[in-house]
Each structure stands twice: as structure tokens, then as C-alpha cells.
Specification:
Helices cover 63% and strands 9% of the residues. The chain is mainly α. The protein has two domains: 193 residues, Alpha-lytic protease prodomain-like; 110 residues, Alpha-Beta Plaits (2-Layer Sandwich), CATH 3.30.70.1350.
């Protein structure tokens, strides 16, 4: 993130230099967004530092939620930049600037776009590896800058060969709309994460993992939830076990569940697994063979899905 921030500062200076050379509104729109990159990158760097701080008495779940705040802040800045770019382009229709040295602008835009693509791709990869929403959001933003740079290169090339100068304003408006959409998506995703919306992709992966490694004594799992706090995942669940097992035996089964999940999803996980004793209503779906306390006959094995693992209710037929 430090390297990305330093490169963003350098690219901002380069892009504003390109604007003063070319006088292009489209180039200006690209330069203005660089200010957003630097501002958002600074806040993102701080948020990652803050999120990495250990849990304390005031923050028992850690400090990871600041990453969602950072992404929302970045999205808001991007949204504001989009509005400013569109306004500047509309103004230029009535008071058109004199464009010059577009060939220089083309080369600078190409260089900036290549740098943004390399940094953005690297950040997304690292963000997914470290489970950091801030790094992924910042990386996607830089990749969207690359797309804008490609459009800018095409547009400036058309203007250079055709001398149709109003294309510059049209390009700026298109870029502004793309930037508005990017900002809106980041804000929406950050708000969704702050409200702890269920991550169905992770839930389905976790459930497939549990189905694959399911043991007979795991009569059912319900009230399953995954909460994300920065890079840490919190898994909540109720595990129904044979009521006649000792506390030590039940604890071993719970530890095994944790081990299976941790081996697949990494160490950045906390578990809150509650053990429930099986009621007689669970007998029809219980796959424990030769159970000494079975009250009713086994009927069928239920496949675990999002629909029957998320509700706070033991499984029955």
C-alpha cells in the first residue's frame, strides 16, 4: 500500500503535467481522479494499519470494520470526482479550450494506464490473499482507471487524426459516468459489509466443506453465520451432537469442525460453536449407526444447504 501510494502521487503529478501541456478536458478528468487515488490511498493505508491492531477491551472483535469505512470513503470521493468531471465537460461545450500537443498526452496516458493496471492487479491479488476489502477495493479502482486511460488514448487518437475537438468533452462525460458507477458500487458494497449482509459465496463454500467432511455424530448444524471484520472471519454455529456423549467427547467433535474449516480458510478465523444435545425429533435424520438411545427409526439423511443451516432451528422431518 505504501508503494501504491507513492506511485499514485507520481502519476498525479505526471497527469496534471499532461493536462497543462494538452489543455484537454478528458486529460483533466483523468488527473482529477488521481487526486482521489492519492487521498483514498492515504486513508486506505491508515485503515490497514488500524485494522491490524490487536483486539482490546473497547474492540473485542478487533478493528477490521474500518476497512469497510475506508472503502466507503474512497467510493464517496470517486462519486464526487465523477460529478466534477461531468460538470467540467459540460462547461467546456460552451467555453471550449484550445487543445495542443495531443501526441504527448497520448504517451503520458498510456504510461499512466499501464502503471495503474500493474498496481491494481497486484493489489487485488494481495487483497484476496490477505482477505482485505480495502486492498481489493483500491485495486479495482486502479483497474477502472486503466479502462478510462484506454478510452482516453482512443479518444485523443481520434481527435489527433480528425481534429473533431468536441469528442474531448464527450469522452470526459463518459469517463465521469464510469467513475460515478465505480464510486456507487464501492459505497454500496462497503455499506453492505458494515450491515453484515450474509456472504453467500463463503457460506456455500463452507457448507460444501462441511458436507464433504461430515461425521455421523454431527447430527445437524444450524444458526450458521459468517461475519467479516477486516481480514478476520467469525464463524458462529450450533452443532447438534448425541446427548449421551461426555463433555470431553463433544468438545473433540467441535475441535474437529474448527480444524477442518481452519485448514481450508486459514488461521484468520474465530469460532463461536455452541453444542446442542440431540432431541428425539432428530432421530429420523440422525445417521449415527447402532445408536443405543434411538427413539424412532432413521428415515433419510438431509443434505446441508444454506436454507437449512442458517435458521436457528434443529433439523427434523
Amino acid at each position: 500500500m505504501r508503494i501504491t501510494l507513492l506511485v499514485s502521487v507520481a502519476l498525479m503529478v505526471i497527469k496534471f503535467t499532461a493536462y497543462f501541456i494538452t489543455n484537454s478536458v478528458a486529460v483533466l478528468s483523468d488527473a482529477l481522479e488521481s487526486i482521489i487515488n492519492v487521498t483514498a490511498g492515504s486513508f486506505a493505508l491508515y485503515s490497514i494499519y488500524y485494522a491490524s491492531q490487536p483486539k482490546d477491551a473497547d474492540h473485542p472483535y478487533g478493528h477490521g470494520k474500518i476497512e469497510n469505512l475506508s472503502a466507503g470513503f474512497e467510493g464517496s470521493l470517486i462519486f464526487i470526482a465523477g460529478i466534477a468531471i461531468i460538470a467540467e465537460a459540460v462547461y467546456a461545450f460552451f467555453f471550449p479550450p484550445e487543445l495542443k500537443k495531443l501526441d504527448t498526452g497520448l504517451m503520458i496516458a498510456g504510461f499512466a494506464g499501464l502503471c495503474n493496471f500493474i498496481m491494481g492487479t497486484y493489489l487485488v491479488q494481495k487483497g484476496k490473499h490477505f482477505n482485505s476489502f480495502t486492498m481489493v477495493a483500491d485495486g479495482k479502482h486502479l483497474i477502472s482507471d486503466t479502462i478510462s486511460s484506454i478510452g482516453l488514448i482512443v479518444g485523443l487518437g481520434i481527435i489527433y487524426f480528425t481534429n473533431i475537438f468536441w469528442i474531448d468533452n464527450i469522452l470526459a462525460i463518459i469517463f465521469g459516468c464510469v467513475i460515478l458507477f465505480t464510486g456507487f458500487k464501492l459505497v454500496r458494497e462497503s455499506v453492505t459489509n458494515l450491515l453484515d449482509k450474509a456472504d453467500l459465496e463463503k457460506l456455500n463454500y463452507l457448507i460444501s466443506l462441511l458436507n464433504k467432511n461430515r461425521r455421523p455424530k454431527w447430527i445437524d448444524i444450524h444458526n450458521l453465520r459468517i461475519l467479516k471484520y477486516g481480514s478476520r472471519l467469525h464463524v458462529d454455529a450450533h452443532l447438534t451432537l448425541p446427548w449421551y456423549d461426555s463433555l470431553e467427547e463433544s468438545h473433540k467433535e467441535m475441535i474437529l469442525v474448527e480444524k477442518i474449516i481452519r485448514e481450508s480458510l486459514g488461521d484468520e478465523i474465530e469460532f463461536f460453536i455452541h453444542a446442542d444435545p440431540c432431541p428425539s425429533a432428530s432421530c429420523p435424520v440422525c445417521i449415527v449407526e447402532n445408536c443405543p438411545q434411538r427413539k424412532t427409526s432413521f428415515i433419510k439423511k438431509l443434505n446441508w444447504t444454506v436454507e437449512n443451516l442458517m435458521p436457528d432451528e434443529k433439523h427434523k422431518i
